[in-house]
Amino acid sequence: MEESSVQQAHVNAPPKGFLRKYVFSLDHKMIGKQYYGLALAAVFTGMALSWLMRIHMVWPLAKIPGLDLLSKAGAPGGIITPEYYLSLMTMHGTLMVFFVLTNAPFAAFGNYFLPIQIGAEDMAFPRFNMMSFWTTFVAWAVLMLAFFIPDGPPISGWTSYAPLSAVGRDAGPGMEYGMSLWGISIALFCVGSLLGALNFIATTLDLRAKGMTLMRMPLCTWAWFITSCIALLAFAVLLPACILLILDRHAGTSFFIPAGLVISDRMQPHSGGSPLLWQHLFWFFGHPEVYIAILPSMGIVSHILINSMRKPLLSHKVVIYSMMSIGFLSYMVWGHHMFLSGMNPTSALAFSFPTLTITIPATLLTLMWLGSLYGARIQINSASLFALGFISMFVSGGVSGFFLAQPSIDIYLHATYFVVGHFHMVMGVASLFGVFAGTYFWFPKMSGRMMNETLGKLHFWVTFIGTYCVFMPFHYLGLIGNVRRYQSFVDDFMQPYIGWHKFITICALITGAGQLIFLFNLIYSRFKGEPAPQNPWNATSLEWSIPSPPPWNNFGDKHPVVYHDPYQYGVKGSKGDFVMQDSPEQVIVSGD
Amino acid sequence: MSSTIATPVNSQTPALPQAKRGSAHSVALARQADRASRSGIWVGLFAITMSFAAFSSALFVRQGTMDWTHIVLPSVLYLNTLFLLASSATLEVARRSLTAASPVGSNAAARKASAWVILTLLLGLVFCVGQFAAWRDLRAQGIYLTTNPNSSFFYVLTFIHALHVLAGIAALVHLAGRLTASHSTFRRSLFENTAIYWHFMAVLWVYLFLLCRMKL
């Protein structure tokens, strides 16, 4: 027997057969598209849920046709009960944070483009890659099952705080089987994410093509790499937390349930647990998770902006190191979600400092983008519009974070709509703008066809204006004391603001309808879009050096050799004002 | 669905000869794959460490909030520890027999290494059986998963560790199979990565055992 240098799974013959090509694919490109499809299904479901929530808030007696078929107990006669509102809210948050914001910018685009951008034929572990997608898919299916069981989905919010999430049926409808399904779903999601993160890290470290040094990787590759490092450690903590929660619920342990707890007039048969422990474990994952949601979009937007401006950013090293600092600091701030949990105020100070510190790299990034844009002649298209919109959203949503980072102010603002406005803008909308930008930018490469520009611009303006109309008022509502996670606002002081809520609801419905423009554009262009050239944006990175769509092994017979960083814009090249990364042409102006 | 729309290839890279088995490129690819699998195992172990760190911190937080009633750890755990450490030793003997033989990877050396790998996994199985005996011992004392917070942590930590050990045993079975299969090609990195994982499980157990001894 000899030790021979046999290739890994990814250097095989092209996949054959429907199942191998489209279902159980080992090809990172197909897996990326599968993640994107899953995220698309999740985002439209999550959006529909938000519509139901918003309608219920302003028209509590509205009859939603068909909803009583889905849940007889939750929506008798189509009218959403208060408890069902909480179920819808829980599923909205869970779907959006996990299955949209972690999947789309990171798993979908990262899987598709990271190997290509570093010049590799596939990910390091294609079988793990396939397993990670299908684990995530099963996690999604398990979660969605909660809609169809009689008791419905859980009502504990996407944060599932103990003890209510741990005690079972006594905590309310959906807290028996629905909550268990949530726990299993998220545990499975953790496994899928861990496998994915492992793949990204090993691929980035070891599968780079000749000449592709770390500093020559595009900024979005850096963002995916840093995100996967964060994800590896974060999901590795959420998984034990979910395991302990499942044990509390089904095995009678008391990790999170204290003694002497009476819920629904019933003494809970547990003792010695700490509800605060769940918050620590959850937020130790939860805060890095929000950076997992935003960092890839930061990278995608940087990548697209450089291309649209036809010039490099002021300093790419600053962008890379800022992203790294954000990743590092993200592990030190989790307590800022717990300022009102009863923790020692000194620890609140200890968490407040790094939270304010993390604004520094975030601000540096913003300065890099804005500073580079100053004086630039940016080519406006759907992708660059969404990239610019990202900066706007990130800043608008981010500045409210400065306030929330301070315990003294957070005492008032915690659990109000101020927080809801903050995270929706800075994480939800901004991240989705990055996904939209990436879609418009990379659709030609993935499908070989261009998306419709008119529809794209229309989609941008409806979404940009619409999301501002929806989420900006949230900040003001929070300041006047509008509590979050309430299904109705009956207090006297809230009555003058019900009109605001009506305005928000209508804007939300219109903005949501505007997303159908995007969906139509996506599907129509896939079949009827104009054929795309290989490099429609005159971009420099390696994905633009291969055909659209790429062959099964990305580079075909060629083994890319990289000579430059991806910032060679505004230089004299044989193609125009840019030089591609794999071009041996000399550059007159070298990058950072 | 994935039909390539024909576009002129305008990339600058000159076309290189197609990768063939044994060609320079395929050798480079294989080395890349070896490096990637080495990175992969360390990254995976890092994630596992983080998970056990989460369990440990949960233990510290819980312990700080109430009176502990210490449980007496079954003495079979000491024996189990010895077996697991011994299994690490036998795996190292397997490694020596792989490198010592010449030429590297000859059939005789592979069979000898395989025998030591099988001994390793048998010792690992003995460890798992011993852990089961420890749980039975505790149950005989009336200490179950839910009896008190200490016991909950003990059962959870040892069970999750045992699951990881079983995964390692599966990997060792696979390794032994690849070492003895007559027509397969054996990659050295498979041995190295499996060994790294297995030794880590031993180190992890020593940490968990000390943690339980001191805290529970």
Task: Describe the protein's architecture and organization.
The complex is a heterodimer of chains A (592) and B (216). Chain A has 592 residues and is mainly alpha-helical. Among the domains of chain A are: 31-253, Cytochrome c oxidase-like, subunit I domain (Cytochrome C Oxidase, Chain A); 531-592, no CATH class. Chain A is 61% helix and 2% strand. Chain A is built from 15 helices and 4 strands. Chain A has helices at 18-23, 28-58, 67-70, 82-118, 126-148, 177-206, 219-250, 275-309, 316-329, 345-373, 382-404, 407-413, 417-447, 453-479, 498-528; strands at residues 262-263, 266-267, 569-573, 576-578. With 216 residues, chain B is an all-alpha fold. Chain B has one domain (34-215): Up-down Bundle (Four Helix Bundle (Hemerythrin (Met), subunit A)). Chain B is 74% helix and 0% strand. Chain B has helices spanning 24-63, 76-100, 107-140, 149-180, 188-215. In chain B, helix 1 packs parallel to helix 5 (188-215) and helix 4 (149-180) runs antiparallel to helix 5 (188-215). The longest helix of chain B has 40 residues, at 24-63. The radius of gyration of chain B is 23 Å and the shape is elongated. Chain B starts with 23 loop residues before the first helix and ends with a helix. At the A-B interface, helix 6, helix 7 and helix 8 of A face helix 1 and helix 4 of B.
